Structures are given as C-alpha cells and as structure tokens.
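To: structure desk
From: M.T.
Subject: fold request, one chain
Message: Could you run this one when you get a chance? Sequence is below, nothing fancy, just the single chain.
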Amino acid sequence: MRKTIAQVKDLHIKEATEEDIPIILQFIKELAEHEGLLHEVKANEDLLAEHLFGESPKAQVIFGCVNDEPIAFALYFFNFSTFEGKPGVYLEDLYVKPSHRGKGVGTILLSYLAHLALQIGGGRLEWCVLTWNTKARAFYESIGAKPQDRIILNRVEGNKLMDLASTFRRLSVQD
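Reply: Done. Structure tokens follow.
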C-alpha cells in the first residue's frame, strides 16, 4: 500500500513501493514513447527492483495520485554540490499523463521535490530537459528554473564506458 507523504488539493503524493514496479516501468515507457526514445529503454522489472528497492537503493520514486490512481511520477536521487557544499535533489524523470497536463500536477511534484531539497539542507533541485521539448522548457522557466548555458551534459555509456573502465583496470596496481 502506497503511503501518502503529502496532499495538495486533490493530488496525493505517494511513495512508490516494490509492488509498484510494473507501474513505474509503464511510466518510464510512456515517457520514452513521448520523447521518441522507446527503443532506448533497457529498464525492466528486475533492474528496477534491484536499484530502487534492493539492499542499497540508488533512486526514489513518487507518484502524483488522484483517487489512489497514479497519474504522474517523478524519479529522483540525492546528489551533492561541491561549490555549495550542500546536498541536492536531482530529478531524473518527471512524467504526467497527457490527460492531466496543464492542471498543475507537474508544479506540485516539483514543489514537493524543492521542499525535500530544503528539508535535507540542500541548495539545489536540478534536472535536464531535451532541447526540442519547448513546452517542457517553457513550463520549467515559468516556475523559475534557469537553463544552464555554461555547462554541457557529458555521458560515457556502452562500449565507451567499458573501455574507460578497462583503462582503470589496466593502470591500477593489483595486489
């Protein structure tokens, strides 16, 4: 049973539980389809179980629910800013079902995460947005988010990630 952690108007914010893994995966796939990236989804229920609810969870999920039905989700984790010297919250994904967009659901979930960042003594709530997603970018700017033009997201994945890791293994001193 999902526990309500906050309520704003008719929207209940609830923590995901292990029983919600199929719903989490469904939201991930809906988001990926919306972004034209469904072919890139490698997540499955076993991976989500291990990394969200296993011995050492790496991220957390909340749902925006109406009448106990999840209509939105946010997947986030805690990070740390060396410049601020404080923790923060990094929002990996936010998705609101199309029939509920434009009703303040995204704002409520983001405001909860901002509240959470302050609760942990944090100084930032951060996320990325696809460059082509002008509606999302306009929404984020409307709530006070400032696009960062002085940083560029870098990523190493797949074979390049394995190559880089093998460099460490080659260079490290083995006992």
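Reply (cont.): Strands lie at 4-8, 11-15, 60-66, 69-81, 86-96, 124-127. Let me know if you need anything else for the meeting.
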